[in-house]
Design goal:
Radius of gyration: 22 Å
Order of helices and strands: HEHEHEHHHEEEEHHHEEHHEHEEHHHHH
Number of domains: 2
Distance between the termini: 38 Å
Oligomer: single chain
CATH architecture of the largest domain: 3-Layer(aba) Sandwich
């Protein structure tokens, strides 16, 4: 099965040109896999911040003699991990594998920090979900193995909905109507969505933030399609249906006491909700994401990472084989589910027995069934580009203003500011950008 998310060869070539790649083959970096000339096992260093990879590495080492994994836990990417990875590549002492978010991969590609492993990886495409495979692909080249994914769903307080006679919304219009009913009861519909958390709404709507035209990047978070999405969320803000900032103490309190009724977020929000609202155990449930038009059946994706093969790796083939095994072996995937609560990106991972049981926090619901269904419905009309950290950082700053009462700031203005800041940064880096 060829993923519909992977772009055509023509578009892929243009993306590669826009990134300014030299596009060397991974075979230039090394050859073969397994024991080295001395007969000693090949050692593949692995850096990640997600918990559970230590146990996954132990499982790999127990199952292999010719290749061994040396594991190191690092800080999360935006909290220092990416700087550590970049510095190690520049110094020539990088590990072969490191965790990189899907959204950050295009920047790593444009900087020359990762290795093309397409020749080794391409035969294993069917082992992963389409969204996961798209996350490791830039242009027509593959740079590592998908680890996890973040299909978006609707978490809702079932007890609050039932107390107010509200059915689970299946469209965004119904979602707003539910918010109006909840407002009468003194309940906020949801919290704020400021950076990556907001991107999933545009993703679902098929309103991408990056495009390639005439060999240059167009940064498009305020395209006409995006402004339609912005107008919807601005309507929720103006109607005073939005509560506390996501990740704040007030937000956690609202989730626990029923004064905030929903989270629109990725599958991995299940763990966040359990930690933030333990007092509401049994009250919450999960449903598929409301649709823009009745009859549509699409969702967005927020988050997900890959085991990227880094520049300087002596044996990229062995690195790919390690990365692929860690993402598909049942014991390795289970270690990551138990350690970090990931939602797997591999087809085998989705069959984990850990994902088949009812969850007491969600009233016994088998929530992974909803996640699995959603993972097959991620809108294919999305691709990340370079400069994402600037884009989402600028967006967050300006979205906070848009949520502030009587500030005069808007969601649309926040999107425009994010696009302008990103385009300026890329131009300064010598990356071609369309006006």
């Amino acid at each position: 099965m060829k993923s519909s998310i992977v772009r055509s060869a023509g578009v892929a070539s243009v993306v590669t040109l826009a990134l300014g790649l030299s596009a060397c083959s991974s075979s230039d970096e090394g050859s073969g896999s397994g024991s080295d000339a001395s007969g000693e096992p090949t050692t593949i260093q692995l850096w990640t911040w997600a918990a559970g990879f230590d146990k996954a590495a132990e499982a790999f080492n127990a199952a292999h003699d010719d290749v061994q994994v040396e594991y190191t836990q690092i800080e999360a990417g935006n909290k220092g991990g990416y700087d550590k990875i970049r510095n190690s590549v520049a110094a020539g002492n990088a590990p072969c594998l490191a965790q990189v978010g899907y959204e950050t991969l295009p920047s790593f590609v444009s900087e020359g920090n990762v290795v093309d492993v397409t020749e080794f990886a391409a035969p294993d495409e069917d082992a992963y979900t389409p969204a996961g495979w798209a996350g490791v692909t830039v242009g027509d080249k593959i740079y590592g193995a998908p680890q996890d994914q973040g299909p978006m769903v609707l978490f809702y307080n079932k007890a609050v909905f039932e107390a107010n006679g509200i059915e689970v919304p299946t469209t965004w219009a119904e979602y707003q109507a539910a918010g109006e009913q909840l407002k009468v009861a003194g309940v906020k519909l949801t919290g704020t969505y400021e950076d990556y958390d907001y991107t999933g709404f545009a993703w679902q709507a098929g309103a991408p933030w990056y495009a390639v035209e005439d060999g240059a990047w167009s940064i498009t978070p305020d395209s006409p399609e995006n402004l339609e999405v912005a107008a919807y969320w601005q309507g929720l803000v103006d109607a005073d249906l939005i509560g506390a900032n996501i990740w704040s103490d007030d937000w956690s309190a609202g989730l626990g006491d029923g004064s905030i009724a929903t989270i629109v977020g990725a599958a991995w929000f299940a763990g966040i909700l359990k930690d933030s609202a333990a007092a509401a155990a049994g009250d919450w449930a999960v449903a598929e994401l409301p649709q823009w038009e009745e009859g549509d059946d699409l969702t967005g994706n927020v988050g997900g990472s890959l085991s990227a093969v880094l520049k300087g790796c002596d044996d990229p083939q062995a690195a790919w084989e390690v990365a692929h095994w860690l993402s598909t072996d049942p014991a390795a995937v289970d270690a990551q589910i138990e350690g970090a609560g990931i939602y797997p990106a591999s087809v085998a991972g989705l069959e984990s027995e850990l994902l088949t049981s009812g969850d007491d926090f969600f009233g016994g619901q088998v929530i992974a069934e909803v996640f699995k269904s959603a993972s097959g419905k991620v809108n294919p009309d999305w691709a990340w580009g370079p400069g994402v950290s600037t884009l989402v950082g600028t967006l967050a700053t300006n979205m906070q203003k848009a949520y502030a009462k009587d500030s005069g700031a808007t969601v649309a203005a926040a999107l425009t500011a994010a696009g302008e800041a990103t385009a300026a940064e890329l131009s300064q880096q010598g990356i071609a950008v369309n006006e």
